[in-house]
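Below is how a single chain appears once it has passed through the pipeline. First comes the sequence as given, then the structure the pipeline wrote out for it. We keep one example in the README because the format questions we get most often are answered faster by looking than by reading.
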Amino acid sequence: MKRIFLGALLTLAAGAVEAGELVVERVIGSEYPGAYKHPASITELDNGDLLIAYYGGGGEYEDDSKVMAMRKGKGAEGWTEPQVIADTPFLGEGNPVVWQAPDGLVWLFYVQRYGDTWSDSRIKAKISEDGAKTWSDSLMLTFDPGTMARGLPIVRHDGKYLLPIYVETGADREKVGADTVSSFLLHDPETRSWTRLGDIESKTGNLQAEAAEVAPDHLIAYCRRGGDYEPTEDGWIVRAESTDGGVTWSKGKNSAFKNPNAAVSFIKLQSGNLLLVYNDNMNERTPLTAALSEDNDATWPHSRNIGTGENTFAYPMAIQAKDGTIHVVYTTDERQTVMVASFDEAWVKGE
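Resulting structure:
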C-alpha cells in the first residue's frame, strides 16, 4: 500500500503527545480527488495502528460516494493513501464506523441509501480478521427504512456490544422529523446475534446517540437534537439514561450543552472520567469543545476548545488509545478536510 504524507499542521507519531499539550493534524483535504470527505471515524487497532474511515465522493447525496480508509502505522508520521473498502454500484454509502472488538475482529458499520434522503437508508456491515487489511463481503444489519449508524460501539460489563443506531424520519433534507429516535443494537459475540433495543424519544426528535456505562447496567447517553437548521435560542444536546443495560431508556431531555443540530462524541475514559466533544453553539458548528466530568456526569468543570473561528468543525469522534492519548477525528473546510486532534486529560483541565 502506498504511503503518503498529507500536510500535517503539526506532525506526530501515533500516540506521541506531550502531557498537557494539544496536537492538531491535517490528515487529508482537497488535494485528494473527491470533494466530499465526511463524516470520519477512528479506531486504534491491536497493533497500535490508527485507522480512519470516511465516505467520500461528489457530495452527501451523490451516488458515487464510497467508504474510504486510511491507516497510520504505530510510530509512523504519515497516513496511507485512502483505499476503497465499501462501494455499492449505483448506490451511495454513508456514515462509516470502524471499530476493533475485544475478540480482535475489526468491524465496519456503514449506511446504504436507497432513496433521495437518509430516511430511505439501511445499516450494513463488514468484518476484517486480519487487522483491517482485507474485508469480508457486506451483511445487512437492519432492513427497516431510515435506520442509520454513526457512533462507536461500547462493550457492556457483561461483554456484549452496544452499537448506537437511529431511525431518521421525514423526506426533508434540511429537517429531521420529530419522531426520529436514537436506539441501540445489542450484539452477543458468542451467538453472533443482533437485537434491537429500546428507543430514546424526545420532543423534537433526536439522533446519533453516544453512550457510556457508568456502572453495571447504568448507561448515560448524549444525542444530537432533531429539528432544522434555522436560527434558534433553544438548541440543546439531548440526554437520556438507562438502568437496564440499554434495553429501555428514559425520555430524552435537554441537557445544559448547546447543540446546532450536529453530532457529538461521548466516551468513558480509562480513568473513569467522562469526555464530551461537541459544538458549543446553538447555530454554528464552531467552536469544537472538549469537556470533562470527574463525577459521572454530575458536573462538568473542565472544558477547552479544540477548534475555533469561522470554519466548521463537524462530526467529532473521540477514542482513547491504549497509551492514554485521546484522539478526536473531525471534518472541516465545508466537509473537505479530515483532521485529528490529540491530547490528554491534563490538557482539558489546563494543567
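Residues 345-349 form the longest helix (5 residues).

See the next section for the split statistics.
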